[in-house]
Batch of 2 targets.
Target 1
Amino acid sequence: MSVTIETRDNYKYFHPIQTRWNDNDMYGHVNNVIYYAYFDTAVNMFMVDNAGFDPHDATVVGICPESHCNYHKSVAYPNKLEAGLRIDRLGNSSVRYEVAIFIAGDEEAAATGYFVHVFVDRETRKPVSIPAIIRSAMETILADTPSSGGAAS
Amino acid sequence: MSVTIETRDNYKYFHPIQTRWNDNDMYGHVNNVIYYAYFDTAVNMFMVDNAGFDPHDATVVGICPESHCNYHKSVAYPNKLEAGLRIDRLGNSSVRYEVAIFIAGDEEAAATGYFVHVFVDRETRKPVSIPAIIRSAMETILADTPSSGGAAS
Amino acid sequence: MSVTIETRDNYKYFHPIQTRWNDNDMYGHVNNVIYYAYFDTAVNMFMVDNAGFDPHDATVVGICPESHCNYHKSVAYPNKLEAGLRIDRLGNSSVRYEVAIFIAGDEEAAATGYFVHVFVDRETRKPVSIPAIIRSAMETILADTPSSGGAAS
Amino acid sequence: MSVTIETRDNYKYFHPIQTRWNDNDMYGHVNNVIYYAYFDTAVNMFMVDNAGFDPHDATVVGICPESHCNYHKSVAYPNKLEAGLRIDRLGNSSVRYEVAIFIAGDEEAAATGYFVHVFVDRETRKPVSIPAIIRSAMETILADTPSSGGAAS
């Protein structure tokens, strides 16, 4: 299970993350579950801020078929955090974000993972092409050297 | 159930609150439960920022015997929010914060409530006097006209 | 702040509540916020189980204008809990549930509170009369001696 | 991204999972984040129920360095769910659980993932051997055909 620690310069978009009192579990650090709430929030916020995505009215929405996290070191409320994003795989209807959680000011990520969005019609839940305005925003945070893994469909 | 809508100038301390994607419930607005996470976070952050409170090491900690919320209008991710605090009742070992949640920039509170902290010894969980440094910070956000209700013990 | 401890025989409907690992906060007990998730879940489950309420399709839904909790003693994962409900105030469009959280098998409530639901049209969010099938279910859990407080509207 | 759908007979331990009202996000299904709360709860409950693990007093505790989930079909409150567990990799200080979430009664998993626990000294947070009583319990849910991946350390 060797895991490369990622640094800030590997990410293209940053979103501040505010910890909450009850993010900490009884071991005194942010519970493993909560990192995924940070991922989800940062990914959606990227679309809100950069592509005018409105989760209340959008007829095409992103749903998550896969997520992953490696936890490298503890973070805890009241730490101020940042989520870093880049995109390694951009397909017709799906996208895979690489995500990292940093303690504000740290060079090395406290956690790294990925988060896949498949775009679907809000009513039918059938996959559709990523809307052009969202795709354009995504292209601005493509990794310099995309992963060699199979392209997302 | 007449409820007075509170405005910003009734509060003495403000803390920004970041909404999260899954704060919204299936009706598309922040779930009633989550407001209490905002309360909890703002109250503890007040102590962290103004009285050097360290939840990991403090030997005297605040636990909550009572909380309350009135919801006046919906808020929703990705709204940016603020929590406003003031103190109406400051006793020997307990304090009652009046709390309000504002959509950033709004004059009128979207929700108002209160949150009581009783200070206890971290190990024995017996009530103790509020530490002097915390009490001093609390005195800076006392309401101009404290409620006439019975003082907290 | 004298608070009457309520016992099981004061409640008319019980719903088991499963605690989760991250319900516990860093003080090792269920965080004050989470009790409201128990309230919300029990109240909606009462309608699902007893009045065929379907939160996905219902055109009339209950939204919460007010909630309250008094915490009497700690509960913690992995405790098994039960939520007890009764109704003290049943109006045309709103209802106030008295709610208690019990450690399974305990006579005395670990926490007591209330939770108000106002029924609204799902689209317009305007108050409407409580649907007859739901009202009938509610009448089966009316308190024997309703509170003398002003009736809910 | 071909993913094998797992069925119930591939799992060795089952734990019922109760959904909560606010598990559902604004798309009306359980938010991707919450599945990890189910994982965490089931894994810890396995240790509580089968190895006498007490998260409040244990001097050796499991912390999570890695988790993963593939979401195959939606689940939603008020669905009744079950988490299935088996162990594919059992090392000296760490264990990897394969986890699946089933709608109660379904043969095919709605979601599948894994959850790694590294056992550490509660104070020093240094890895230690898995306690014998916990290891014995783990051995009862080993997969019939462990994955060929590198053994956990």
Note: Chain B has one domain: 8-139.
Target 2
Amino acid sequence: MEADRLKMEIAQRMSTERYEHVLRVTETAKKLAATNRISIEKAEQAALFHDIAKFMDKSDQQHILETADEDPRLFSFHHELWHAPVGAIIARDEFGINDKDILNAIRYHTTGRANMSPLEKLIYISDMIEPGRNFPGIEDLRKKAAENLETAMESCIHQSVQFLVNKRAPVFPDSIDCYNQHLEKKGTVKL
Amino acid sequence: MEADRLKMEIAQRMSTERYEHVLRVTETAKKLAATNRISIEKAEQAALFHDIAKFMDKSDQQHILETADEDPRLFSFHHELWHAPVGAIIARDEFGINDKDILNAIRYHTTGRANMSPLEKLIYISDMIEPGRNFPGIEDLRKKAAENLETAMESCIHQSVQFLVNKRAPVFPDSIDCYNQHLEKKGTVKL
């Protein structure tokens, strides 16, 4: 499907605000792809699809996850986490996206995970730092993203986990695996 | 083994400072056991043994963990975590402790885990709030422990995870499982 028709399809499935966020994530992802020698086309596709399931009914999302035999741990966490794997399934089954890396970038854009590919990191980071986002420390994340994807990912996952823990919210195990692995890469002393 | 001889054995395996900590944890655990209808004898045994492996050589601890086919994830975390499962193995193999609940209280006193027994929680909390400990918020934890073991455990594991994340230190997966489960019990909104 060509980009303009795909954008119309996506726009129809979400609010205007959310669609504008998707377009900003897409622009951010394309820029970062260019400077990091990642396929701009793959970055664009993953970014366009990343929130495609965001406005689906909770029960429809649950049905899709159950049918697809997805990670059952998801069901004991808030359904906010579900739209990412559901989005990957929709991109594959309704839009014929078969590139595993694009699908994983959609699938893990909310939680992160251990052993993320460069494209997965790119989408995770772009979703967090797109120009519409605003939270303490975001300028530092944007600066890091412009310099080094790896350093930016470490700071983004730390920021996410810290935000959740500070408000006493649950942390999905994949996110802690991602957090721990990025510390290990830096050689930080453990515990 | 009677308590006095056991204490001598334990004292010989650690520094004076550490042994004094063990005695304070033991007194704290016995008091909390009495008010929470938990066996005072089990609380005393678990507390006395909890740090028995703290001063063992790292290589000896690694050997014991490998021989006992312990959780391999431990080896990619700091060896500070190892003394807890190693202590449980020593209590069983060298001192003949066969009570599974006592052994688990020793084993999980550093990380916590999901589905902790009352005795496991008691030891985890006592280790954290014994009179020699001093950190911001400890008085609140002591107050909660005097009132309700469950609330105290939720605050203790939150405090531990928050401390680690704030200093960008790794968090063992069992600790996040414990943290998530205690939030669920309170019905906190997830993510």
Note: The domain at 3-135 of chain B is CATH 1.10.3210.10 (Hypothetical protein af1432).
